[in-house]
């Protein structure tokens, strides 16, 4: 049914999306090619764009269109009904944030990101601290503007994982932590005496790019609608409905490092590609949450990419590209990429230790946002928590509290979604294996279409039609539970036993 208010609302959202994707393009450029001296002006550009987008969306007319469209009687399950419901929610939040505050945050983040890059390189927390103080003030202020019931952190968590609460995630993590610690101890012991399994490099960057591109294309990435560039912190961003940008970094000593980044980021891109294109930028064409987004990257990276079947299929090609692999086997590579080891860096962590990195960040960030600790306390608090959870003494802050980019872009409330993604990925993969006949045999022969098709239907196409937990229930027939993830981790350890 036609409704003039709905049509005006959607036309405005298309404009907001145009500005948002321009910001994304400038962000992508900042991470890839922007000269250092250009950073302050880039900050002005991004601040102006986010201010304009905010003003366009929070215009009182938009509120009137939403109100009128909400009274038009759309079926709540229809595309229109879902879009109006979510836009109401987003509008209510956005109108609580003053435009000057939104611009100020964008400007702070641009400068903070540049400072973080230097601080991390120089292992110098003091260089980042004043920026982090401003970012923390803004995060607390944002929560206060948005409002919350129990915890300031709830307001920030909900922006990344709609419907999630600090108490719910906190209880989940508290229940997981002891089991994970036991699994990590068992896994680290099982792998302690493994020899070096990867033949020595160098693995030339150019050849890594060739191999990665073949793998990305095989699982469904379209190079006519995307690119892979180089950065220090790999990511995937969408600049338009047919423009998906992945970035990567290369370790000449180990080609599998960039390979798993590509599998991960391609997983994110496949989700974005699978969203309904005619709804681009609207709730029905947007990801359900970051926890669902991360389930897609983790599924391709870990459940597909870290399987023995993956290496049995890709080994010959890898060996043709990297002659030093001649003396090794698919089993050895598979063990190499699954080795369980306590290490400092989250993005390099194996699957078994990974969630402990997240639990630390969630607990620390919650304490910071709620004012239990201040920025000056972060290095010591981080190191103490790391020693307690992982049993390792952090040697310098670039191995500790300076390692992640998130705070520098104001991404408070983000980290928990990584572990939610791991949990969702395991549950989705188990469901796909039950529902798609012969799935594992197809994966073993390098056929990924059936898996992608199942994910498209059950996870990608619904967009934001359901809350993340409801999407999971519908896709898998079960409520969200860490059981599939934990049994996978336990199984992994037994493979080394
Ligand atoms: Zn990710």
Protein described:
The protein is mainly α. The protein is 65% helix and 3% strand. β2 and β3 (243-248) form a beta hairpin. It is globular and about 70 Å long. The model has no long low-confidence stretch (mean pLDDT 96). The site of zinc ion has 4 residues, from α10 and α11.
The largest β sheet comes out as: 3 strands, mixed
Q: Determine the number of helices (DSSP H or I, runs of at least 4 residues).
A: 20
Provide the β-strand percentage band.
under 5%
Q: Which regions contain 5 or more consecutive residues with pLDDT less than 50?
A: none
Strand order in the largest sheet: 1-3-2
What is the strand tally?
A: 3
Q: Which structural class best describes the helix and strand composition?
A: mainly alpha
Radius of gyration computed on alpha carbons: 22 Å
Spell the H/E element sequence. Answer: HHHHHHHHHEEEHHHHHHHHHHH
Distance between the termini: 61 Å
Considering DSSP H and I runs of 4 or more, what fraction of the residues is helical? 55-70%
Mean pLDDT: 96
The shape is globular
**Ligands (ions, cofactors included):** zinc ion
